[in-house]
Write a structure and sequence with these properties.
Largest sheet: 20 strands, mixed
Oligomer: single chain
EC number: 3.2.2.6
Keywords: Hydrolase, Leucine-rich repeat, NAD, Plant defense, Repeat
InterPro entries: AAA+_ATPase, Apaf_helical, C-JID, Disease_R_plants, LRR_dom_sf, LRR_R13L4/SHOC2-like, NB-ARC, P-loop_NTPase
Shape: globular
Catalytic activity: NAD(+) + H2O = ADP-D-ribose + nicotinamide + H(+)
GO molecular function: ADP binding; NAD+ nucleosidase activity, cyclic ADP-ribose generating
Strand content: 15-25%
Helix content: 25-40%
Length: 1214
């Protein structure tokens, strides 16, 4: 029995260095060494990194600023989001604290620089009134700590003063502890002399050290060594001291300007992920001029991302500017393009050089002025090529290292301009969309108390478009809950005007045919495949071109449908993580955002679509449909499509017979949930729509309630039939022609007993889905469909015999999972020679396979798991030279495998629990994953050492395993299942690659010895005698699971609880242990108070929960509950949000988790634990313990040392 768990956290990073480190670990989806055509499409997880506080990039300098004498540009390309430095939030007393030796500089250099500071409004600490003694006093220490910047003016006699050296030591301490900025000025002295205490400087230092305590001297020496490494200003490098002073004063002034964090971007969600992706496109370390496109739909946040990016990096460029709403100030159509472009250039140059009234006479001025300048230019909302021609026609217009950012909804504009570096802005995840909405509705990232449910509903109406979330949230901010409830009905049926205006602008720019396609998708085909839409609409619209245009205008997007063939090709190249960059499959899923869809449906009320020179309307939305169907008056409108969804409608639908007679010629019918609140007569009346529409091309009715379709139904023109979850017993009486049918989905029609005989001659059929048709018995004798691509009979448990499969050369997937009555596969199955995936899991009556299996030479995945009566495989399987994955888990009667074959493409072979298999499977030398747990194999051939790809090798323990020493070096997963085994053999410690150890029902096992350090997973299940763990766990990634090991002694329990684990640990217990000194014996949250003096920047905790079953009828192992862990500060600000999926879940067991909270400034934290399946489980007890960074071995005391609990001196509130 295994254990699985998913733990994902969204946390704010503590420092910019942490972020940089995380950035280095990030998977790079596109390398700059690859082809230039790079489009970044972030994963859903890329939105999971949240920025609770956003500041200007200059604030990074609070922790890593290094001044350089010649003002060289930084080569760092990092855009990682800086977190607010600890020092930013402090109350400052001074801008600058200068440390200097008065005799050297007070009347000369220092007096001049102090005057320059005064003129620039820089407040400098003056020590004239402080009485000097042998050591610096508390007043001076407070002045150092209270200054934003410390300037160390190092001169020849600086080290002759113990006072100066004490100052320096205190400054370097503040630099290390609170990130204080330290600037260095080397005045007539070399940094080497400072660092090594040599020359005249060294002599002065030696003299000062005489008679001083060794500890004090070492502290001074360390401070001098550290300060000498800070690059600063060197007086020897300046001919003019006045210029040097002006440069220092200007830099200090700029630093102070940057010191105050920008609040312009407070509350942004997901910005860190955007910056991570853009960093790879920007490549700020390169001197080339680069143009980057930021592409996405209206309102998704392109401008916000661009503004933030400008805010982050502008100080690295000589000139910077953002030009907003370019499309709004550029006429469409543009009849005088020259004047329009001249005006744009004038505006750009004016902003770039901060010259408000600049006038340019021709289009060559801007590039002449900027060609030697390193600029950062944002061109926002570009929608025409002429705009780019005016502002950034060629990269040579700008100086080396320049970056031009272009935001647009139209990918075509970027491609036409030859821009290959494009970042696609994706929609946020559900959780982040909710946070965006809450930030605007409540001023925080979670709703106010009592608003959770209604906030989620309103957020769902807005979808995930950030602008929509912002506008909706802002409109509701400050309103009471009853006001929210009164607003809901209107929100459900109407759009906000601001969003509508944005979408309207894009819609109006489309040609008529593209508008029609937009309306079709909004009303009928959102979420459908491009292939299906082309087939259904292709006779009267240029769908391919229209989809291309709508996608480029960001009005739709596509989800990639990556085929199995593509996945296998990538797997074979060991690049599974880059599957998204394989060649696109022909079919994609069309996605239209909720607000765009709603706009389209609103527009369809008044907008016609032309079909063969006739105006038609699309009938969608229960309100409009009810009005039309209840209208007895004469109405000459003609309708081509209907989409009726009565899922939430509780009123009875009235249908007029006259209306039904008037409404006909529907070609697209989509009806959902008619049965929910409607009487039978409504169902029958709606069937008349089918009767009056003889040319239906797509019929989707969910769930259809009658036992068959009406005899008058004409399926001749039918291309798609989707009757999932219906009560059909048969499709219709008699024989009907289905010559155009391509997609048939009858899945979950549990009463369906037979298919019409005409199925066997459906030469156009591509997909036939009969999943979960559990009453289906009769299938046609053969299927002759040379276009068939997918056939699923999953869970058709009464099917005994399959039809002969003939001429199915395009069949890619055949799914027969859990066809438990199926006795054999047809011999003709071998004609499916392009089949990629064959799934016959759970075909428990299957005894043998036909030899024609070997004719399926393109097969990549073959799954025979739990074919419990299968005895052997045919030798022809050796012909499957493209087979990548062979799974036979649980084939309990399998005795042998073919010999003398070598499947060169086989990478995964899973024979787990093939309990009768005794011979080692030598069917391929190219395997990378070999799973043999639960087999009767008692040998490991020496030849396995030549399997160069073998990375995972799972094996069951047997007594003579030690006689195969070569096996001990390659086994990665060892299973011990024995009631007699009393100890884990000592040679297990020598298994250098062992990562997982599983102990099932080892009832005589009393203790575990020291195990290999490589181990990262221990699962000991129902080891009834296990008491001791005579070991320690040194792998920080380890996972520890001890279900039903009730005899574990206290020392073993302490070891499990206090070991730092990768995910979670579990062990038996009837209560949360006392070492978790903050406990709630009932309830699911804890509030703890911390001593302010003990607060570090980052706190680590161990959390413990115990689950209680609510539904007593449910088995312990019936569901894997997920537990949401939230940590908040006193002000209700969310700090950490984690989700843990637990398995196995048992009562009388506890689960412990590692938690980390960064940037803690409050003295109160609230921990909340929420199970997702509240109807089945609840939190019985919970506890919190602060963690120390240390290893915990068997020899450690089970009781916590005093220092572990030093911050937990206050009460726990439950």
């Amino acid at each position: 029995m295994g254990s699985a768990m998913s733990l994902s956290c969204s946390k704010r990073k503590a420092t910019s260095q942490d972020v940089d480190s995380e950035s280095c670990k990030r998977r790079k989806t596109c390398s700059t060494n690859d082809a230039e055509n790079c489009i970044f499409i972030p994963d859903e997880s890329s939105w999971s990194l949240c920025a609770n506080r956003v500041i200007t990039v200059a604030a990074v300098a609070l922790t890593n600023f290094r001044f350089q004498q010649d003002n060289q540009e930084s080569n760092s390309s990092s855009l990682s989001l800086p977190s607010l430095a600890t020092s930013v939030s402090r109350n400052w007393k001074h801008d600058v604290f200068p440390s200097f030796h008065g005799a050297d500089v007070r009347r000369t250099f220092l007096s001049h620089i102090m005057e320059s500071f005064r003129r620039k409004g820089i407040d400098t600490f003056i020590d004239n009134n402080i009485e000097r003694s042998k050591s610096i006093g508390p007043e001076l220490k407070e002045a150092i700590k209270g200054s934003k910047i410390a300037i160390v003016l190092l001169s020849r006699k600086y080290a002759s003063s113990s006072w100066c050296l004490d100052e320096l030591a205190e400054i370097m301490k503040c630099r290390q502890m609170v990130g204080q900025i330290v600037m260095t000025i080397f005045y007539e002295v070399e940094p080497t002399d400072i660092k090594k205490q040599t020359g005249e400087f060294g002599k002065a230092f030696t003299k000062t050290c005489r008679g001083k305590p060794k500890e004090q001297v070492e502290r001074w020496r360390k401070a001098l060594e550290d300060v000498a490494t800070i690059a600063g200003y060197h007086s020897h490098s300046w001919r003019n001291e006045a210029d040097m002073i002006e440069k220092i004063a200007t830099d200090v002034s700029n630093m102070l300007n940057s010191f105050t964090p920008s609040r312009d971007f407070d509350g942004l969600v997901g910005m860190r992920a955007h910056m991570d992706m853009l960093e790879q496109l920007l490549r700020l370390d390169l001197d080339e001029v680069r143009i980057i496109g930021i592409w996405g739909p209206p309102g998704i946040g392109k401008t916000t991302i661009a503004r933030f990016l400008l805010n982050q990096v502008s100080d690295r460029f000589q000139l910077s500017a953002i030009m907003v709403n370019i499309k709004g100030c550029y006429p469409r159509p543009c009849f005088d393009e020259y004047s329009a472009q001249l005006q744009l250039q004038n505006q750009m140059l004016s902003q770039m050089i901060n010259h408000k009234d600049i006038m340019i006479s021709h289009l060559g001025v801007a590039q002449e002025r900027l060609r030697d300048k390193k600029v950062f230019l944002v061109l926002d909302e570009v929608d025409q090529l002429g705009q780019l021609d005016a502002l950034a026609k060629e990269t040579r217009w700008f100086g080396p290292g320049s970056r031009i950012i272009i935001t647009t909804e139209d990918l075509g504009v970027l491609k036409a301009h030859g821009i290959n570096h494009v970042y696609k802005v994706e929609y946020p995840s559900n959780d982040e969309a909710f946070q965006i909405f809450c930030m605007n509705a409540f001023g925080q990232k979670q709703p106010h108390e009592g608003f959770d449910e209604i906030a989620w509903e309103v957020k769902a109406l807005a979808g995930k478009l950030p602008l929509g979330l912002k506008v909706l949230g802002s409109a509701l901010r400050g309103k009471s809950k009853p006001e929210w409830e009164r607003t809901l009905p209107r929100l459900r049926t109407s759009l906000d005007g601001k969003i509508g205006g944005i979408i309207q602008f894009s819609y109006d720019a489309l040609c008529d045919e593209d508008k029609y396609l937009f309306l079709y998708i909004a009303c009928l085909f959102n979420g459908e495949s491009t292939t299906k839409v082309k087939e259904l609409l292709g006779k009267f619209l240029d769908v391919r071109q229209g989809l291309h245009v709508l996608a480029q205008k960001s009005l739709i997007s596509f989800d990639e449908e990556i085929s199995w063939k593509q996945i296998v090709q990538v797997l074979l190249l060991n690049k599974f993580s880059h599957v998204r960059h394989t060649k696109r499959n022909k079919s994609q899923i069309i996605r239209m955002h909720t607000l765009l869809e709603q706009f389209g449906r609103e527009t369809s009320r008044k907008q016609f679509v032309h079909h063969r020179y006739t105006k038609h309307q699309l009938l969608v939305g229960e309100r409009d449909i009810c009005e039309v169907l209840d209208d007895d008056t004469t109405d000459n409108r003609r309708f081509i499509g209907i989409n009726l969804d009565l899922y939430k409608n509780e009123e009875e639908l009235n249908i007029s017979e006259k209306a039904l007679e008037r409404i006909h010629d529907f070609q697209f019918v989509k009806i959902n949930y008619v049965f929910t609140h409607q009487p039978e007569r409504v169902q029958l009346a709606l069937e008349d729509l089918i009767y009056h529409s003889p040319r239906i091309r797509s019929l989707k009715w969910f769930p259809y309630q009658n036992i068959c379709l009406p005899s008058t139904f004409n399926p001749e023109f039918l291309v798609e039939l989707d009757m999932r979850c219906s009560k059909l017993r048969k499709l219709w009486e008699g024989t009907k022609q289905l010559r155009n049918l391509k997609w048939m989905d009858l899945s979950d029609s549990r009463d369906l007993k037979e298919l019409p005989s005409s199925i066997e001659k459906l030469t156009s059929l591509q997909i036939l889905d009969l999943r979960d048709c559990s009453s289906l018995v009769k299938l046609p004798p053969s299927i002759n469909a040379n276009n068939l691509q997918g056939l699923s009979l999953t869970n058709c448990s009464r099917v005994v015999k399959l039809p002969a499969i003939e001429n199915v050369t395009n069949l890619h997937q055949l799914k027969l999972q859990n066809c438990s009555s199926l006795i054999e596969l047809p011999l003709s199955i071998g004609t499916a020679n392009n089949l990629w995936k064959l799934d016959i899991r759970g075909c428990s009556s299957l005894v043998k396979l036909p030899s024609s299996i070997g004719d399926m030479t393109n097969l990549k995945e073959f799954d025979l798991s739990n074919c419990s009566n299968l005895v052997e495989l045919p030798s022809s399987i050796g012909n499957l030279q493209k087979l990548f994955m062979l799974r036979m888990r649980g084939c309990s009667k399998l005795e042998t495998l073919p010999t003398n074959i070598n499947l060169i493409s086989l990478r995964i072979l899973d024979l787990t629990d093939c309990s009768q298999l005794k011979s080692f499977p030598e069917i391929s030398t190219h395997i990378s994953e070999l799973r043999l747990k639960g087999t009767a194999i008692k040998e490991v051939p020496l030849s396995i050492t030549s399997w160069s790809r073998l990375a995972v090798y799972e094996m069951s323990y047997f007594e003579s395993l030690k006689e195969f020493p070569h096996a001990l070096d390659i086994i990665t997963d060892l299973l011990l299942v024995s009631e007699d085994i009393q100890e884990v053999p000592p040679w297990v410690k020598r298994m250098s690659r062992l990562r997982a150890l599983r102990l099932n029902n080892c009832n005589s096992l009393v203790s575990l010895p020291q195990l290999p350090d490589s181990l990262d997973y221990i699962y000991a299940d129902n080891c009834k005698s296990l008491e001791r763990l005579d070991c320690c766990f040194n792998n920080p990634e380890i996972r520890l699971y001890f279900p039903k090991c009730f005899k574990l002694n206290q020392e073993a329990r302490d070891l499990i609880m206090h070991t730092s684990t990768r995910k979670y640990a579990m062990l038996p217990s009837i209560q949360v242990p006392a070492c978790f000194n903050h406990r709630a014996t009932s309830g699911d949250y804890l509030k703890i108070k911390l001593k302010e003096s003990s607060l570090p920047t980052t706190l680590r905790f161990k959390a413990c929960i115990m689950l209680v079953k609510v539904n007593e009828e449910m088995r312990d192992d019936e569901m894997w509950p997920s537990v949401l862990i939230a940590i908040r500060v006193k002000q209700n600000d969310l700090k950490v949000l984690c989700t843990a999926s637990i398995y196995p879940v048992l009562t009388e067991h506890i689960y412990t988790f590692e938690l980390e909270v960064e940037e803690v400034t409050s003295t109160e934290l609230v921990f909340e634990f929420t199970p997702f399946h509240k109807s089945n489980w609840k939190i019985g007890e919970c506890g919190i313990l602060q963690r120390e960074t240390r290893s915990f071995c068997r020899s450690s005391s089970p009781d916590l040392p005093p220092e572990s609990s030093r911050v937990f001196l206050a009460r726990t509130t439950v």
